[in-house]
Amino acid sequence: MRSPALLLAALLLALLSACTAAAPKPPVADIPPTPELAAEALFPQLNAAALEGRLPDGDWEALQGFLPILQEGASFAYTLDMAAEEPESESLTLAEYCAGLPTETGQLLKLTLQELDGDGGAELILCIAGPGSGDYLVLKREEDAFYGVQMVHRGMNAIQTNGVFVGSSGAASNHYCRLYFENGIAALEILGYADSWEYAIAGQTVTEEEFSAWTQELMVGDAAWYTPEGEQAP
Q1: Which residues fall within 8 angstroms of residue 161, CB to CB, at 6 or more apart?
Q2: Each residue of 15-58: pLDDT tens digit?
Q3: pLDDT by residue (tens digit) across 90-99?
Q4: Are strands 145-152 and 75-79 parallel, antiparallel or unpaired?
Q5: What is the rounded CA–CA span in Å between residue 51 and residue 140?
């Protein structure tokens, strides 16, 4: 039997690769942050007035903190590949990020604001149309600095109100994770996993019953998603 430490390392590498495999490459040409490249132009269905009236007060306040990216062409440090030995970031605007997506994608499907890393501030998660169910762009703000990373849909399922989410690197492989940023670079923490008939919590092997009880406590409720028009989204 593989040791939990070796299995965890393999699972982490597989999940990181899955999460970032579809990340867009920045376009060759620089795109200046002009008003035409604001979120209303990139995502014309985004209705800030409707969101203000429908988002909970705390979420609306958090969303306002990301308006420099959404409306003013501010740049963010975009993590290129979390699976790399020494991950690097690239400075991008939202327009540059969207320009790097395949041409058939780019429509904003829904958004949510959730605290993912436990630092007290909510991250903005944009679900952008793509192959299958779309991908996520996760944006974080620290004072006047912004950071971001793309997560493929299967790498960030069932986002909870406590910031935990489920990543999958195969039909019988699920990982319960947190996403955080360290020195401006996105990183993934695996809290526990179920891989075929092997179960582990914090790197320690447990029984299926122990794992089931742990996940029931961990999964506290799904995050609330909103369409760009301010309606509740599934």
Answers
A1: 114, 220, 221, 222, 223
A2: 554 455 444 544 433 434 433 334 555 676 778 888 888 888 88
A3: 999 988 888 8
A4: parallel
A5: 19
